[in-house]
Amino acid sequence: MEDSKQWINESLKKFGFYPELTSPNYIKLMKAKKGLAKANSFLDQVDMILANSRDQETEIAKLIGEDEELLKLVYSTGIRYSVHVLNSILDVLDDLEVDPAHILELGAANGWALSLLDEYFDNSCKLTLVEKNRVWKAVSPKFNVVNLSYEEYDTDTKADLIFTIFGAPYFGFEELVACVDRALSAHGYFIAALRIPDDLMLSNFLKLCATAGLEFDSKRSGQLTVKAPHGLERFPILVFKRGTSVEEEPVVFDLLREF
Ligand SMILES: C[S@@+](CC[C@H](N)C(=O)[O-])C[C@H]1O[C@@H](n2cnc3c(N)ncnc32)[C@H](O)[C@@H]1O
User: Fold this and answer.
1) Phi-psi region for residue 123, left (φ > 0), alpha (ψ -120 to 50) or beta?
2) Counting atoms of ligand 1 from 1, which one is nearest the CA of 58?
3) Other C-beta atoms lying within 10 Å of the C-beta of residue 124
4) Which ligand 1 atom minimizes the distance to the CA of 78?
5) Chain-centre distance of CA 254, in angstroms?
6) Kind and range of the H or E run holding 177
7) Dist. CA 245 → ligand 1 center (Å)
8) 158 ligand 1 Cβ < 6 A
9) What is the pLDDT of residues 153-174, one digit of tens each?
């Protein structure tokens, strides 16, 4: 497990992220890259967005504009959570014993996690990523890159494994699940790692998935608890397969296993 985290961290560095970034180093690097005055003004504007905006990610992306290097630096402040999540997704995949021909990642940034999953499956998969921010440059020429929002994405080429790591804010879950419904094959799996903070939102998300014909696999799903600046944060990792008779299951965080 530690070995795969190390592999993920090393790969992230190769792709230009800073997975071991600390807050003082973030500010130092920001100042080195942008110059003192620009860095201070940028950091102030980010603080304003964090304090006032509902769609913080879109606002910060707008502020960053075309500068992919800066985007990578800003994303690096939270990328260690994605590392933990991908590591747990690998545990789920070990257990599922799937052999997907086509993997789709939703909200993939530059597709770093998709490329690692391809490596996990011996580079044997067709790969598609959907990412609305076109500033990201795909890390592999093998990807079919779709720069559309989930609402806009429709396809006849179904994927048999769809995953997302923090690919939608809570107010974008409906569009995300509708997109999975359109893009998932008849026997496919969907793995959702999203910021879902409480039981009510968890239950609403499971309802959405059940309505879309996604059967919740409660045994393989779980939650991950990670140290964060303001205490512990928990992230659910939810596993679904395309179901025939899908019923909504009442699930609360306490019923989810710990990864
Ligand atoms: C928090 S980032 C996570 C990136 C990556 N999965 C990771 O863990 O490093 C969420 C990504 O999803 C994309 N995204 C959010 N909502 C989207 C939508 N409706 N359609 C397409 N992409 C979306 C954002 O542009 C962003 O790149």
Assistant:
1) left
2) 25
3) 9
4) 9
5) 23
6) helix 173-183
7) 31
8) no
9) 999 999 999 999 999 999 999 9
Q: Would the CB of 183 count as within 6 Å of ligand 1?
A: no
CA 107 – ligand 1 centroid, Å? 3
- Domain residue spans in the chain? 22-76, 98-258
Q: What is the pLDDT of residues 74-118, one digit of tens each?
A: 999 999 999 999 999 999 999 998 999 999 999 999 999 999 999
Instruction: Give percent of the chain with pLDDT exceeding 90.
Output: 89
Q: Find the 63 Cα to ligand 1 centroid distance in Å.
A: 16
Q: Which fold has domain 98-258?
A: Rossmann fold (3.40.50)
Side-chain half-sphere CA neighbours of 36 within 13 A? 0
Task: Output the CA torsion sign for 34, 35, 38, 41.
Answer: positive
User: Ligand 1 centre from 207 Cα, in Å?
Assistant: 22
- Exposure on the CB side of residue 74, measured as CA atoms within 13 A: 25
Q: Is the confidence at residue 67, as pLDDT, over 80?
A: yes
